[in-house]
Amino acid sequence: MFVEFFPVVVTAYSADEDHAPLLVDPAAARMVRADQVADGDTVLASFSGPQGRMPAADYFNDQYTARPKPYNPTCGCGSCATMADHEGPVVDLGDDNPWDVCDPWPAAAPVLIVPAA
C-alpha cells in the first residue's frame, strides 16, 4: 500500500470580483489527487504548480459539488476535447457546476476539496 501525504495550508481569500467567499469551513479542506475526488466533495481550487515548498492554490470563483463520471473526450461539451491529447489518465469531476460543462482533470493533478463525508 502506498500513502501519499500532501501538506496544505488553507487561507481565506477576500470576497472580490476575482474570488468568491468560501461557503464551507476551510479547516476541513484537503488536497487530494483528482482521481480521489468523490461524489459530493466540494471542489475549491486547482494548483498552478509548485511555488516554493508547497504548491499555491488558485481558488475557483465558484466552488462546486463534484459528481465524477467517466471521462469521454468525444462527449461534445467543449471542455473534454481540451484534454484529449493529455498523456496519462484523465478523470471528469462532472458537469454539475456553474459552467454546465464537464470538468476534466489529469488524474494525478492536485485538487483542494472539502470531503463530503
Provide structural commentary.
The protein is mostly beta strands and 117 residues long. The protein is 0% helix and 32% strand. It has strands at 30-33, 42-51, 54-65, 90-92, 104-106, 110-114. A four-stranded antiparallel beta sheet has the order 1-6-2-3, with no helix packed on it. Strands 4-5 form a two-stranded antiparallel ribbon. A hairpin with a 2-residue loop joins strand 2 (42-51) and strand 3 (54-65).
Please give a quick description of this structure.
With 117 residues, the chain is mostly beta strands.
* Approximate shape: globular
Q: Report low-confidence residues grouped into runs of 5 or more.
A: none
What percent of residues are in strands?
25-35%
Ends apart, CA distance between termini? 23 Å
Strand order of the largest sheet: 1-6-2-3
Order of helices and strands: EEEEEE
What is the number of helical segments per DSSP (H or I, 4+ residues)?
A: 0
Largest sheet: 4 strands, antiparallel
Task: Kindly provide the radius of gyration, computed on alpha-carbon positions and rounded to a whole number of angstroms.
Answer: 14 Å
**Strand segment tally:** 6
Helix proportion of residues, in percent?
Answer: under 10%
Class derived from helix and strand content? mainly beta
